[in-house]
Specification:
With 282 residues, the protein is of the alpha+beta class. It contains 12 helices and 11 strands. The protein has a 5-stranded antiparallel beta sheet with strand order 2-9-4-7-10. A 4-stranded antiparallel beta sheet has the order 8-5-6-11, with no helix packed on it. Strand 5 and strand 6 form a beta hairpin. Helix 3 runs antiparallel to helix 4 and helix 9 runs antiparallel to helix 10. The chain is globular and about 55 Å long.
C-alpha cells in the first residue's frame, strides 16, 4: 500500500467547473491525493474500490462518489476490466456564487463528510435521470451554439441540486453493507481527530481515550487507512491551516489553531506539503 507521505494535491482547477469522461484499459496505480476543489465521480464501468478517509467503497455502475476538498482518497483499480467514469471538478468560488442563502450547493459534500459516508446509490429511475443530465451537460460543454456556456452552467447547477436532494433522502448504499467496508472504532478515531486538530492527539492520548492498546491502534489505523497516525494528523493539520490562511487568519495564529506548538516545525512541514511558504500560498 502506498505510504501516506506520497499524498499530494492532484490537479489544478482554473475554470468554474470541469468535466472529464475517462476510460482506461491499461493497468494503473494511483497514490493517495487530495484537491482544493470538490469532486463528483460518477462510476460507469469496471471494477474499482475507492478509499476515502478510511472507508472503502465498492462501486457499482452509476454510483456517485462525493469527495470534498482536502479529503484524502485513492482508487484501487482492477486492470482486468476497462475503468470508465465521469469526473466533475467543482470550483468552490463558483459553487458559492451560485448558491442561495440557506441552500448552499455544496451542502451535499458537507453532509457526506459529517455522515462519514460519501457514496450515493440512486434507484433505477433516478439513474436514468442522471444519465440524461450528464449527457446534456457533456453536449453543452462541447457545443458552440448560442447560449451553450450558460446552458452548461445551468445544467451543472441542476446536477448539484439533484445530488443534494438525493443525498438527504436516500441512504440505500449505506444500508447495503456489502457496498463498503469500515472499522467502527477507527471511524470514531477519525471523527475525533477531525474535531480536535488543535488538541493533544498523540498515539498514547488516542489509545487511552478509545480504550485500545498503542500497538493495536497503530497497527489497525495503518491497516484501515493506509497511513500512520502521525502522518495522517500532520497532513490534516496542514490542510486545515491552509484553509485558515486563505481565509485571512494570520499565519502564526493558524499554526497554533491546528495544533502546531513550534512555528519552525509548522513552516518546514507546510513547505514540504504545499511547496511554497504560507504567504505565497495565501
Amino acid at each position: 500500500m502506498a505510504d501516506y507521505e506520497t499524498a499530494d494535491k492532484r490537479g489544478y482547477l482554473k475554470e468554474n467547473f470541469r468535466l472529464f469522461h475517462l476510460k482506461d484499459s491499461r493497468a494503473q496505480k494511483l497514490d493517495y491525493h487530495y484537491h482544493e476543489f470538490d469532486k463528483l465521480i460518477l462510476f460507469l464501468s469496471g471494477k474499482v474500490a475507492y478509499l476515502v478517509e478510511g472507508v472503502t467503497y465498492f462501486l457499482q455502475p452509476w454510483d456517485i462518489l462525493l469527495v470534498q476538498h482536502n479529503l484524502i482518497h485513492r482508487p484501487v483499480i482492477d486492470p482486468g476490466q476497462p475503468y470508465e467514469r465521469i469526473v466533475i471538478w467543482l470550483g468552490r468560488d463558483w459553487v458559492a456564487a451560485r448558491s442561495d442563502p440557506g441552500e448552499a450547493l455544496d451542502a451535499c459534500f458537507d453532509a457526506a463528510r459529517r455522515r462519514g459516508f460519501h457514496l450515493l446509490r440512486a434507484g433505477a429511475e433516478r439513474r436514468l435521470q442522471y444519465m440524461g443530465m450528464i449527457q446534456r451537460l457533456e453536449e453543452a460543454l462541447h457545443s458552440t451554439d448560442f447560449g451553450a456556456v450558460r446552458l452548461a452552467d445551468t445544467l451543472c447547477q441542476q446536477l448539484l441540486i439533484d445530488v443534494n436532494r438525493d443525498i438527504l433522502r436516500d441512504r440505500t448504499a449505506q444500508e447495503q453493507t456489502d457496498s463498503y467496508r469500515v472499522d467502527p472504532k477507527i471511524e470514531d478515531v477519525l471523527r475525533y481527530i477531525a474535531a480536535n486538530l488543535e488538541g493533544d492527539l498523540t498515539v498514547g492520548t488516542l489509545a487511552r481515550r478509545f480504550y485500545l492498546s498503542r500497538y493495536y491502534l497503530m497497527h489497525r489505523f495503518k491497516a484501515v487507512t493506509g497511513y500512520t497516525i502521525h502522518q495522517y494528523i500532520s497532513q490534516k493539520r496542514l490542510l486545515r491551516a491552509g484553509e485558515l490562511i486563505r481565509s485571512g487568519t494570520p499565519v502564526m495564529k493558524a499554526a497554533e489553531q491546528v495544533g502546531f506548538s513550534e512555528y519552525s516545525t509548522f513552516l518546514r512541514a507546510f513547505r514540504n506539503t504545499f511547496h511554497m511558504n504560507p504567504r505565497e500560498f495565501r
